[in-house]
Amino acid sequence: MGAEFLPDGAAAEPPAPLILGLQPAALIDHVARVDWALLDRVPGERGGSIPVAIEDLDYILREVKTHILSSPNDLSPVKSMAGGSVANTIRGLSAGFGVSCGIVGAYGDDDQGQSFVNNMSFHGVSLSRMRLKKGPTGQCVCLVDACGNRTMRPCLSSAVKLQADELTGAHFRGSKWLVIRYAIFNLEVIQAAISIAKQEGLLVSLDLASFEMVRNFRSPLLELLQSGNIDLCFANEDEAAELLRGEEKVGPEAALEFLGQYCKWAVVTLSSNGCIAKHGKETVRVPAIAEVKAADATGAGDLFASGFLYGLVKGLSLEECCKAGSCSGGSVIRALGGEVTPENWRWMYKQMQIKGLPLPNMRN
Q1: For a disulfide at 330, which of 114, 198, 292, 321, Cβ 3.0-4.6 Å?
Q2: Is 233 exposed, middle or buried (0-12, 13-18, 19+ CB in 10 A)?
Q3: How far apart are CA 81 and CA 197, in angstroms?
């Protein structure tokens, strides 16, 4: 399969992004509010994320048109944007927090690939480490119910992706953090990226992806955590429960203690109950922002990670990192999709001011 690097515009070598995200396959999210009837017909459990074939994706997108929940704030019944957990986190860091960021991965030579490039470039993300390959770009349908809960069905089976043997030290040199999402189908490239990133002195952040991914592929995940190469780990309450399935001690607090054995920082998000976090011997509990009504939970954990990482690179305390995460996580759930609107960034800055957090020094 042929590939070429995406030019980054400038002839001179730009400085390395402070934070890099590894997303082997670029992804376009198709987000729609739908009724319960469609969710009952989609294979798999509600609220999770399991891969589907392209035929299933096409079927769901066709059915969406007859199951749309109308909203006066939505200009289009289906909202499409660059997606994927890592892309959401990286875009949030760049667009909302002014942190220099880049993506390592590949995108296809189709309309979806160009849409991914346009969206991420518009928000200031460096794409010089992305490869253009012949073939389709990944897609994901995100079904949001009346309560704002999302069910995700990604289609990556035929999508172009970055391979482990395509990674070199040059991808990571000069950066400080590498952001990764756990996925069994990307395990080889994840392991290669972590190994090279560690050789280059980067810290590694890992998101546990979904409760299905933890449940079905727990053993390789434990090996990854126990390697000692994961510096920061994010899990939501459902993922935390699966992580400790069958253990004597269960629950979010037990999961936090477990993750804290292997990671410098560990965070378990608890939806409307806020989060708990651990760094060394310090443990904190931070409530969610009470006034937020979730229109769509897509990207909540991803944007929480944006705020938390912003706090870390700014040298904030563990509690302040969690508060920054709650502000950014709260900002994205106020509208449809995993991309924060300008209005909701302004809302986030107001919340940060209320909490006494330092506002970002935006590049633009």
Answers
A1: 292
A2: buried
A3: 28
